[in-house]
């Protein structure tokens, strides 16, 4: 029997629909520590069985391992309604001499390295390699990956190349993914992207994107995907341990204190910190989906349970009253 699918929201003006909880496929490619093939496959399968139909990957993740593992799993599912996003901007090229381990966060052999390339040729080469690794004949969503220091090339070369691919129906929607909100707002204002992926900047802890990006997305009729909504693990559990991480490093005492206060208020309202962290970005009308990285079937189950958990409106009013979050406008 086909499992029930999670609620969906449309990427504006594209017709594509994302499940409100998306699967971030960096961890299954050995982010920080290795994940074996059997566990990776079981994790992807658990997400599909749980009703997730939006899967986000990138060449950067595990030097192509994420794309290969996701593509292998996809070949065993009905593809109707499944949305896959990947990224361009980092070409994978041979590393000479090879390293025993990748030097950029992933526990995989370092036989390849990443080369930044936001040119038209780089976009086309990157997409061709993605299609080969995944075994797909098209990608539903293609993002420009982290063009922070490359605005001109990304805006003047990468975006027009993506527009051509969209018009040729090789991709369904085009966008940009970054860890900052200001340049994403500029991409919406000045280029023909359909959506943006914002990592870590619209969460229970940080709402800077509410100043410019989210109002701009609404004004221009574009969608936002909120990623890294646990702020690198800070909000991943009901209780916040001393070892909790924030922005890929050890959380400071001040951040731990604030996270624990948020967790305490959640408990007062009969819910949990992960449930509130998932639900918070989805309250904004510009946000189509939240993407959470998952490395095991147990993590998938926890995230699905948190996504399904009731979060009372009174919680948001209380958090606003205490000055812990900003109102949604």
How would you describe this structure to a colleague?
The model has no long low-confidence stretch (mean pLDDT about 95). This protein has helices at about 35-50, 65-75, 120-135, 150-165, 180-190, 215-220, 255-270, 275-280, 295-310, 315-320, and strands at about 10, 15-20, 20-25, 55, 85-90, 90-100, 110-115, 140-145, 170-180, 195-200, 225, 245, 250, 285-295. Strand 9 (about 170-180), helix 5 and strand 10 form a beta-alpha-beta unit. Helices cover about 35% and strands about 20% of the residues. The chain is of the alpha/beta class and about 325 residues long.
Beta strands, count: 14
Task: Compute the number of helices.
Answer: 10
Cα distance, first to last residue?
Answer: 41 Å
Structural class: alpha/beta
Residue-averaged pLDDT, rounded?
96
Q: Biggest β-sheet: count, sense, barrel? A: 8 strands, parallel, barrel
Radius of gyration from the CA trace?
Answer: 19 Å
Strand order of the largest sheet: 3-4-5-8-9-10-11-14
Helical content stands at 25-40%
Query: Low-confidence runs (pLDDT<50, min 5 residues)?
Result: none
Shape: globular
SSE order: EEEHEHEEEHEHEHEHEEEHHEHH
């Amino acid at each position: 029997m086909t499992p029930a699918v999670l609620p969906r929201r449309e990427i504006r003006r594209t017709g594509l629909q994302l499940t409100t909880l998306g699967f971030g496929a960096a961890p299954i490619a050995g982010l920080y520590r290795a994940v074996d093939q059997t566990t990776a496959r079981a994790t992807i399968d658990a997400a599909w069985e749980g009703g997730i139909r939006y899967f986000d990957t990138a060449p950067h993740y595990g030097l192509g391992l994420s794309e290969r593992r996701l593509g292998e799993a996809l070949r065993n599912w009905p593809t109707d309604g499944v949305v896959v996003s990947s990224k361009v901007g980092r070409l994978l090229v041979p590393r000479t001499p090879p390293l025993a381990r990748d030097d950029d966060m992933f526990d995989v052999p370092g036989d390849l390295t990443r080369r930044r390339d936001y040119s038209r040729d780089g976009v086309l080469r990157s997409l061709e390699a993605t299609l080969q690794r995944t075994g797909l004949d098209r990608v539903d969503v293609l993002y420009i990956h982290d063009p922070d220091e490359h605005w001109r090339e990304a805006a003047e070369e990468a975006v027009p190349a993506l527009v051509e691919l969209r018009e040729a129906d090789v991709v369904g929607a085009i966008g940009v993914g970054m860890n900052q909100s200001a340049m994403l707002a500029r991409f919406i204002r000045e280029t023909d992207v359909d959506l943006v992926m914002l990592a870590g900047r619209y969460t229970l802890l940080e709402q800077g994107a509410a100043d410019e990006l989210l109002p701009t997305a609404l004004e221009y009729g574009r969608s936002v995907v909120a990623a890294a909504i646990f702020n690198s693990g800070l909000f991943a559990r009901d209780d916040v341990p001393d070892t909790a991480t924030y922005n890929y490093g050890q959380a400071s005492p001040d951040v731990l204190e604030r996270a624990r206060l948020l967790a305490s208020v959640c408990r007062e309202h009969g819910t949990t910190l992960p449930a509130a962290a998932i639900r918070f970005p989805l309250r904004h009308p510009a946000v189509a989906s939240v993407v959470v990285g998952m490395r095991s079937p147990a993590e998938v189950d926890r995230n699905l349970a948190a996504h399904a958990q009731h979060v009372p409106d009174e919680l948001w009013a209380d958090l606003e009253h205490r000055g812990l979050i900003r109102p949604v406008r």
